């Protein structure tokens, strides 16, 4: 939950000095009743007392003036809610509301990984609050192409998705920039219907369900090409629809991922292949932001990744709680969540050489297979900061 900082201005009223004036008045009254013999002496005493009083009042006034200036009139940094050091440093600003997209509909409406944990625990909100962020609106999408469309239409400021749909969007002219790779070992599984194909070679001439434009699509096409399988038919289906079609026997195989894939395997559906046998076909998860958003808020990538890293540090200290959180998102058990979404797979740095190599390989494959329409340089897409 977003934590708001309360500011309080403390006002100090200067002392009036009435106590001194009262004492002086009483002393004058007593002197007037004593007679003329001591008038000269009284005048001398009164003069000295008056001089002393003026010194005391001057000192008090200076002290109160200083106190009032420091508390009743706060510095610009205090009045803006920022620390004096931050104000002096010219602290960057972000919009009050961030619009963030991710893949995977679930009851918590949160992604997995450091991003999801950070939003769930309020770590990211707290980290960004000093820069003006009061709310982060998270929107789930069933697949990457739908999220890319939301980015291009301006409904989102930034989002996390698989590398393949992000690359495909960029190749069609989407004005996005790559700000991080969150995971570089996304697994895809190729699962057959019961009493159906027994190997990848058996898929010749068969119908396969796949989320077109996803990292699983890239894996499947790459696998079938490497195995020399031809004559197959790909039909676009989201995972839930693909599972239903597989159960009915309407398709011969489908790609799937995560806890859903393991559930199907446990239910007796044959596993034909997965990306652990083809590490060059691993998918990666990326975060991209629109160029318009970054033009207004150039400090966002750095601030977002710093907040994400705080969330990652926290979940590493609370692994059991994190896997229980994943179990809620994926509608599974913490044990299965630990198996398919291990903490070790979450990247600490925005970019690594290994991740960028996989990303470039995916881009080149999509270009070569004419799945992507236009080539571009990865270095022109990646945002250095």
**Radius of gyration (Å):** 34 Å
Give me the CATH architecture of the largest domain, please.
3-Layer(aba) Sandwich
* SSE class: alpha/beta
Oligomeric form: single chain
Percent in strands? 15-25%
How many domains?
Answer: 2
Tell me the series of helices and strands, N- to C-terminal. HHHHEHHEHEHEEEHEHEHEEHHHHHH
Mean pLDDT: 82
Count up the helices.
17
Strand order of the largest sheet: 2-1-3-10-4
Range of helix content: 40-55%
Question: What is the end-to-end distance?
Answer: 28 Å
Quickly name the level 1 CATH class of the largest domain. Answer: Alpha Beta
Relevant CATH superfamily of the largest domain: Periplasmic binding protein-like II
Number of strands: 10
Describe the sheet with the most strands.
Answer: 5 strands, mixed
What general outline do the C-alpha atoms trace?
Answer: globular
CATH topology of the largest domain: D-Maltodextrin-Binding Protein, domain 2
């Amino acid at each position: 939950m977003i934590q708001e900082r309360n500011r309080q201005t403390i006002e100090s009223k200067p002392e009036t000095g009435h106590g001194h004036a009262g004492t002086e008045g009483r002393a004058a009254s007593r002197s007037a009743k004593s007679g003329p013999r001591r008038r000269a002496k009284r005048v001398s005493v009164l003069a000295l007392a008056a001089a002393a009083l003026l010194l005391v009042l001057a000192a008090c006034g200076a002290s109160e003036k200083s106190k009032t200036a420091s508390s009743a009139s706060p510095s610009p940094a205090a009045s803006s809610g920022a620390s004096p050091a931050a104000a002096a440093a010219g602290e960057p600003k972000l919009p009050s509301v961030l619009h963030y997209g991710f893949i995977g509909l679930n009851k918590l409406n949160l992604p997995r990984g450091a991003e999801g944990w950070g939003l769930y625990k309020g770590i990211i909100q707290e980290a960004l609050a000093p820069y003006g962020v009061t709310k982060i609106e998270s929107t789930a999408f069933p697949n990457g192409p739908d999220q890319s469309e939301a980015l291009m239409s301006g409904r989102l400021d930034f989002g996390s998705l698989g590398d393949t749909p992000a690359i495909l969007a960029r190749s069609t002219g989407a004005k996005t920039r790559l700000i991080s790779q969150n995971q570089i070992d996304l697994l895809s599984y190729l699962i057959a219907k019961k009493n159906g194909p027994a190997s990848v070679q058996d898929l010749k001439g068969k119908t396969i369900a796949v989320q077109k434009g996803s990292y699983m699509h890239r894996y499947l096409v790459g696998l079938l090409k490497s195995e020399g399988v031809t004559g197959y038919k790909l039909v676009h289906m989201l995972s839930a629809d693909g599972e239903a079609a597989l159960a009915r026997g309407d398709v011969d195989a489908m790609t799937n991922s995560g806890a859903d894939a393991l559930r199907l395997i446990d239910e007796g559906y044959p596993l034909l292949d997965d990306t652990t046998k083809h590490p060059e076909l691993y998918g990666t998860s990326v975060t991209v932001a629109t160029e318009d958003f970054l033009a207004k808020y150039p400090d966002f990538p750095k601030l977002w990744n710093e907040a994400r890293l705080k969330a990652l540090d926290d979940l590493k200290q609370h692994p059991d709680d994190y896997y229980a959180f994943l179990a809620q998102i994926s509608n599974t058990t913490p044990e299965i969540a630990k198996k398919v979404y291990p903490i070790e797979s979450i990247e600490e740095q925005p970019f690594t050489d290994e991740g960028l190599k996989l990303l470039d390989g995916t881009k080149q494959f999509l270009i070569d297979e004419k799945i992507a329409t236009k080539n571009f340089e990865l270095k022109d897409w990646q945002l250095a900061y």
